[in-house]
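User: Can you recover a sequence for this backbone? Please restate the input before giving your answer.

Assistant: Of course. Working from this structure:
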């Protein structure tokens, strides 16, 4: 299916992966989602769009991320974390990176073992966070949130 955007963009929907599938949503992502995740995994930031918990309007911010086991992982630091509070109220979010746009469902991570694993992934990917951890910085050690991709779209210019 193709939708022509107002700026001459064509969005081609390449996959839909429902989180509430049999097996509790722990199944691997569809091949189209996995391919898109593999293509963005080494990039530095994603644009995360949440719905304002008070305004109901979309809010977009760049955030650090890692990809692990078919999911996009982000962290809320100690500073400005409106996006995190927005996700607690409405767990639907859109992630954009380059030509890819993912519709996602957010789940805060509370398990200590999973949290440590996610922190380690961030410290491995982001050298500056790793270096700053030696002087007591909490960068790379925020409250993790898992973004389960439900769908991916690829933006092509005409």
């Amino acid at each position: 299916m193709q939708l022509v955007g107002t700026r001459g963009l064509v969005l081609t929907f390449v996959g839909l992966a429902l989180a509430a599938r049999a097996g509790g949503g722990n199944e691997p992502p569809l091949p189209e989602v996995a391919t898109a995740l593999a293509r963005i995994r080494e990039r530095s930031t994603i644009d995360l769009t949440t719905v304002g918990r008070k305004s109901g309007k979309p809010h977009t911010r760049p955030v650090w991320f890692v990809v692990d086991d078919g999911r996009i992982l982000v962290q809320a630091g100690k500073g400005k974390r409106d996006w995190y509070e927005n996700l607690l109220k409405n767990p639907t979010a859109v992630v954009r990176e380059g030509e890819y746009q993912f519709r996602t469902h957010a789940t805060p991570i509370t398990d200590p073992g999973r949290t440590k694993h996610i922190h380690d992934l961030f410290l491995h990917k982001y050298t500056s966070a790793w270096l700053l951890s030696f002087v007591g910085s909490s960068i790379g050690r925020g409250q993790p949130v898992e973004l389960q991709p439900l769908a991916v779209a690829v933006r092509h210019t005409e």
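That completes the design. The mean pLDDT is 80.
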